[in-house]
Every structure is written in structure tokens, then in C-alpha cells.
TrEMBL record:
One of its GO terms (molecular function) is DNA binding. Coiled coil: none annotated. Keywords: DNA-binding, Transcription, Transcription regulation. InterPro entries: HTH_MarR-typ, WH-like_DNA-bd_sf, WH_DNA-bd_sf. PANTHER family: TRANSCRIPTIONAL REGULATOR, MARR, TRANSCRIPTIONAL REPRESSOR OF EMRAB OPERON. This is Transcriptional regulator, MarR family. Residues 1-144 form the HTH marR-type domain.
Length: 145
């Protein structure tokens, strides 16, 4: 179905514009809330993904978080410099780099669930439970291939 045409397309009313604006709003609010932990919202995604063992290599993280490999490398460098993660070569395939949180990284990752929900709850304050369920359903539909 064609929802947009040259005649009805308005930038600020487009789904793309509104999704980017919503993302930027959440990122700014999350970054502010995570300031005490000295990490960004993007770094939060990396740390939680590693902590929950959803990925263990830069490639897996890039794919899961939809971050290009160049930016991923720079973010991993920052987290490594802060002493929050370490890189190691895979024992069976030396071409593979494995990532793991340090003891300090685990401590920071374990603080994130005490911070992030407040940011999301504030943004979703005017949503009913069923509206949130519907929003999540629609986003999953939008993101599906």
C-alpha cells in the first residue's frame, strides 16, 4: 500500500522523521541519566548486550544493535579505555575477537536497570498499558523484514 505520494508527503508528518525525532529524544534523555555512570546510551546497549550474553563479538554486537562496524570499534575502544571491557582472541579461531565485561564493567552494567526504566517510564507516562503493548507490536511490525 502506498501511504505517501508526492502530493501528501510532508517531512514533519513522515514516519521516518517522527521515528528519528523520537529516537533522538530518548537518546538525549538516556545520555543525561547515564552521565553518573560515565557511559552513553549507545554504550549502554553494548554493555547490556554483553552482560545478558546476547552477543560476544564486535560483529554480533554490530548486527544486534544496528551499528556500523567503524562506530562499533570506536565505542569498544572507549569502553576498553575506561576499563569496562576487554578484547581477547578466540582460542579456536584467532581471527575472532571475543568481548567480555571487566569486573568494573559488570558493576556498571548492573546499575543500568536502576537508571534506564525511569527515563522510559517518564517518556511513556501518558500511555496506557494497552497503548504501550500496541506501540511495541507496531514497532516490531515496522522492523520486520
Amino acid at each position: 500500500m502506498r501511504h505517501y505520494t508526492k502530493d501528501n508527503f510532508r517531512l514533519t508528518e513522515s514516519v521516518g522523521f517522527q521515528l528519528v525525532k523520537a529516537r533522538n529524544l530518548i537518546v538525549a534523555e538516556m545520555d543525561a541519566a547515564l552521565k553518573e555512570l560515565d557511559i552513553s546510551s549507545q554504550q549502554m546497549g553494548i554493555m547490556l548486550t554483553l552482560r545478558q550474553r546476547l552477543a560476544s563479538t564486535p560483529f554480533e554486537l554490530s548486527k544486534m544493535l544496528a551499528i556500523d562496524t567503524g562506530l562499533m570499534t570506536r565505542m569498544l575502544d572507549k569502553l576498553e579505555t575506561k576499563g569496562l571491557l576487554v578484547r581477547s582472541r578466540d582460542e579456536t579461531d584467532r581471527r575472532v575477537v571475543n568481548l567480555s565485561l571487566t569486573k568494573e564493567g559488570v558493576a556498571v552494567a548492573d546499575q543500568i536497570p536502576h537508571v534506564a526504566p525511569a527515563v522510559l517510564n517518564a517518556r511513556l507516562n501518558d500511555f496506557t498499558k494497552s497503548e504501550l503493548v500496541e506501540l511495541r507490536r507496531l514497532l516490531r511490525k515496522f522492523l520486520s523484514d
